[in-house]
Amino acid sequence: MTARTKVLVVDDHDVNLLLAQHTLEDAGYDVVLAANGMEALARFVEQPADCVLLDVRMPDLDGFAVCERLRSLPGGAEMPVLFLTALRDIETFDRASRVDADDFLTKPVRPQELVARVRTAIELRRVRAELRGHYDLLKKQRDDLMRLQLQKERLMAFVVHDLKNPVHAMDLHAQLLLLEELPADAREAVLHIRAGARRLSQMILNLLDVSKADEGRLVPQRSEVDLVGLIADVLAETAVLATDRSIALRSEAGGVSVRADRDLLRRTLTNLVENAIRYAPEGTAVTISAAVSADGTQIRVADEGRGIPAALRDRVFDPFVQGDSGNHDDLRANRGLGLSFCKTAVEAHGGAIWVEDGSPGAVFCLRFPDGE
What we know:
The protein is α/β, with parallel strands linked by helices and 372 residues long. The chain folds into three domains: 6-130, 3-Layer(aba) Sandwich (Rossmann fold); 148-214; 223-368, Histidine kinase-like ATPase, C-terminal domain (Heat Shock Protein 90), CATH 3.30.565. It contains eleven helices and twelve strands. Helix 7 crosses helix 11 (338-348), helix 8 packs across helix 10 and helix 10 (262-279) runs antiparallel to helix 11. The chain is elongated and about 80 Å long. The two termini are 41 Å apart. 29% of the residues are buried. The model is unreliable at 323-331 (pLDDT under 50).
């Protein structure tokens, strides 16, 4: 990159123009600004750019029309065009592809990402000139990945919005049945239905939160949480599963509290307790304890099972991980997103999660920093 590398930024909002200008000039680029489509075309004729950042929604000429006209100007056919838009859907992405856009950035764009994408687009221009065939292949692969990501987000919305309501309805009807006079075996069956519905609801929320964290949108809503009451709720929620497996549940929280997002912390502990119950031998106990340490509040969930080998303790937090051998219990296989969600939720608080040897069993340890 040299000081002569020029970027044309087109946006009808002054704040967006100034942010892009300062970001790119700090990175060593010359920047030309345009407040609308017609002005952008005139600027490009006067001062041909090496790259164009183009807003999609603008009065008169929108970004798609501007891109088409730029491509017909001298020097415009091979110039990198990066669309900036608040719209994140497949239809907008496809329209950008049809006018031969080089990249597609969703607002708000982080400054580091903006510079990286501009630098990549300009470098790809050089590569394209030398190896057009290879460039087209790479661009198609990148576009396919973007479409896959957008389809994943659409599926995520379906899972959350279309599945959450019927699962909640199942739980509600189970609660209504429990208000009736039922035989003991029927009441036990209804309790199992409710426990299953709540676990399914928890899995849906885990999936949503892991997806949010991938996009940097998982922000804990902190408040002072009484761990005695919270742990009591968690043990009540997991009581049916523990009873089925003849596992005792114990709390050793004392009078400890922690500043955290109550819902995220409750679901984290529920996941850890359910995981511990699955691997605890019949007739043993799962214990949640909490204490204040020099570097924050520490919560521990311990079982008396086979434990986890030291070399594999980091991998249990990977999504859908399974053991290398046929005996998946060696890894306490995280076949879903439960433990991955736990890691995501704790780290969103600025905390840490790890596994220790319980001799016997495994101890999942959580540390939350003091304050915000």
